Amino acid sequence: MENGQKQSHINWFPGHMTKALREMEQNIKLVDLVIYVLDARAPYSCVNPKFTQVIKNKPILYVLNKADLADDNQTQKWQNFFQTKNSLCVILNSTHTNSTKIIQEKIKILLKDKLQKYNNKGVVMPSRAMVIGVPNCGKSTLINNLCGKYKATTGNKPGVTKGTQWVKVFGNIELLDTPGTLWPSFENQELAKNLAYIGSIKDEVLDISELALDFIEKMKKEYPLLFEQRYSIKFTNQTPVEVLEEVCKNRKFVIKGGETDWERGSFAILDDFRKGRLGKITLDKKENINKSSIN
Ligand SMILES: Nc1nc2c(ncn2[C@@H]2O[C@H](COP(=O)(O)OP(=O)(O)OP(=O)(O)O)[C@@H](O)[C@H]2O)c(=O)[nH]1
Ligand SMILES: [Mg+2]
């Protein structure tokens, strides 16, 4: 749906993602491990079934990124979920200088045997990692943080990185930045909506008003107090449309003739969530998902 109409059924799989997946398949042979970046606000929704096929048996370092925006209690639970015998998981805010030091430690742990082997032979070999994740989850920001320089282009919208790029970082480690990648069709639309809320799907292919109404409904169920505080409203028996109308009225979002500016209100609510102005929110609740259900 790169150039298609806005739709209720969410889908976004432009050509550069197919190409990116192909490149990942080629490059996986060159790397020792995968750094799998997840948005901590929706870690489960960020698990791409296509990546599972690409990664095969490589060790994985999961990064619960944007943890500054997520519900801490849930982030802890997700950290346990993603630690397996072949993987470790760290909690991170990649925008904080030096926050990524923990990544160096974990890479050493995951590659202990290999590093030991080279060490015994007196050989110095670089460790290579491929950094993957859905669009806008913070891969390039994480890489820049790790190398202490702005080497990978970043931006507050999905689809910023369009091609793969090797970046040398500290301690003889090379990282491969990759474009954020989704998968050809979302069978689970709840999950697709989560990706849309966190800004992983291009807004231009979304019906923003419909999305905002669904988001209001979700907040009413899961984080009513945060929502009520932000907009000085009380959830009673109103429908999401009535709530949106009230928010627009309070914010004076009106168009000519005094009519409600639904679109502006919808963008404002989603933007507040995306920037963390609603508070620390996690959309994927760990208790609703079984260990066995990961891909
Ligand atoms: N609050 C917060 N923002 C973050 C964090 N990491 C990245 N960001 C922001 O998220 C946005 C996207 O970051 P990028 O690094 O461009 O994301 P990406 O995964 O490389 O995106 P694509 O290349 O489009 O796939 C930027 O505005 C970053 O500043 C984090 O840990 N916390
Ligand atoms: Mg990027």
CATH class of the largest domain, anyone?
A: Alpha Beta
Do you know the CATH topology of the largest domain?
Answer: Rossmann fold
Tell me, what's the shape? Answer: elongated
Determine the strand fraction and express it as a percent band.
5-15%
How much helical structure, as a percent, in the residues? 25-40%
Within the largest sheet, what's the order of strands?
Answer: 3-2-1-4-6-5
Secondary structure tally, helices: 11
Q: Helix and strand string, N-terminal first?
A: HEHEHEHHEHEEHHHHEEH
Helix and strand content put the structural class at: alpha/beta
Description:
This protein is an alpha/beta fold. The protein contains eleven helices and eight strands. It has helices at 15-27, 49-55, 72-82, 101-110, 112-121, 139-147, 189-197, 208-222, 224-231, 240-251, 262-274; strands at residues 33-39, 60-65, 87-91, 127-132, 165-169, 173-177, 254-255, 259-260. The protein is elongated. The model has no long low-confidence stretch (mean pLDDT 92). Bound molecules: guanosine-5'-triphosphate (GTP) and magnesium ion.
